[in-house]
Amino acid sequence: MIVWINGAFGAGKTTTARELIDLIPNCTLYDPELIGGELRRLLPPKRLAEVTDYQDLPIWRRLVVDTAAALLAELGGVLVVPMTLLRQEYRDEIFGGLAARRIPVRHVLLRPDETILRERIAARGEPETSDADQRARQWASDHFDPYLAALDWLTTDAHVVDTSRIDPLEAARRIAAAVRTGEATVCEIVQTPEPTAETLAAGVLLFDEEDRVLLVDPTYKPGWEFPGGVVERGEPPARAGMREVAEELGLELDQVPRLLVVDWEPPLPPRFGGLRLLFDGGRLHSREAGRVQLPGPELRAWRFVAEEEAAELLPPVRYERLRWALRARERGAVLNLEAGVPV
Prior knowledge:
Number of helices: 13
Number of domains: 2
Oligomer: single chain
Helix content: 40-55%
Mean pLDDT: 88
Largest sheet: 6 strands, mixed
Order of helices and strands: EHEHHHEHEHHHEHEEEHEEHEHHEE
Structural class: alpha/beta
Shape: elongated
Number of strands: 13
């Protein structure tokens, strides 16, 4: 299990985490800041210059998950993670990756009053403080407005602990009690386990009356996607696509969808690749589209988009698959692709 302590820069996450590891049996402190520091040594300066925050590096988010899984495999017990996450899509990606490894996450938010938090940040930049503290103060100040903007989703998602008038030890005691009683619930993001071999996946393209295609926004990985998922053992691929449409959108398709594209996705570690199929699920009239219901833990949004907009929302590999599927639909043909390229 992971207890993830979130909050603004300067909220006292690390000091609270250090107190907490003495209150929960078999508990280890895991600070993802260390991964950011190592990436500054490992990545070329040109790549580092492309971002202002190491959290914007996909490799950082991936390593945070992989390292947590490795630590738990080595040590067992509980990891306490003091780390600010203000972008919901990054929270979704990291917590989704942990869910895929069957690692439950209890999300806690330290939330002092805004005035108190501003005073704490200002105190870190007093003239007698070190250059490092001065830089930390500037960093915390720069991220204060993003923190306020993120409070809507943070307070809904996390167990909130008001630290305005309590010290880190008391905050840790309250977190430990909330974890013990279940008041700090496990994050609802769910995902199927990480594959251990090549997989077969089926996606279904649904269109509106303007021939725009329906895309969904998963909570557990970056980028938009088509409705669909992994084909289960012994399951016909087209029927798997129909099942996924029903599970993800609440829509029952009347007819088995027609195959548009078979795409072989090469293995690119840590992914195993496999076959990716796209089917034509037909048109949804406005009345049918109005019945779409998303499962909250898995999908946060859906929309119909033209091909040009899909190019901006989809990761490049998925967009190439969509592009050729649309061409196949126009021609009434089936296209065989390898890594997104017709053969």
